[in-house]
Amino acid sequence: QVQLVESGGGLVQAGGSLRLSCAASGRTFSSYVMGWFRQAPGKEREFVVGIARSGGSTSYADSVKGRFTISRDNAKNTVYLQMNSLKPEDTAVYYCAARRLEARSYEFWGQGTQVTVSS
């Protein structure tokens, strides 16, 4: 099992940047596929980006391609989400998630961090 704690959210103007971090507990962080999801008010939670265990492969939602970058540091048990050129529609609670390679869905979730983009 892994516990996840997000940080780095906040209020930013449109066009600005934020970097989210997700710190994971345990010694097996590198065995988990990691992802970021978000949930805006009144909407369902949606996938933002995922990263393979080694960090060598990533997958982005079309809405954030070219603006967001995911990375991970397995030595620090941390995954990052660099968000640039933020838009008001990026406003949401952002969640970090983890899953084992063989799992069909993400199994472990953080508590979320609020990102608000003002126009």
How is the topology of this model organized?
Blueprint: E1 4-7, E2 10-13, E3 18-24, E4 32-39, E5 46-51, E6 58-60, E7 68-73, E8 78-83, E9 92-100, E10 108-109, E11 113-118
Please provide a written account of the structure.
- The chain is mainly beta.
- 0% of the residues lie in helices and 51% in strands.
- The protein contains no helices and 11 strands.
- It has strands at residues 4-7, 10-13, 18-24, 32-39, 46-51, 58-60, 68-73, 78-83, 92-100, 108-109, 113-118.
- The strands form 2 sheets. Strands 2, 4, 5, 6, 9, 10 and 11 form a 7-stranded mixed β-sheet that branches. The chain has a 4-stranded antiparallel β-sheet with strand order 1-3-8-7, with no helix packed on it.
- The mean pLDDT is 97.
Shape verdict: globular
- Report mean pLDDT, rounded to a whole number: 97
Please tally the β strands and state the result.
11
**Helix and strand pattern:** EEEEEEEEEEE
State the helix count: 0
Radius of gyration: 13 Å
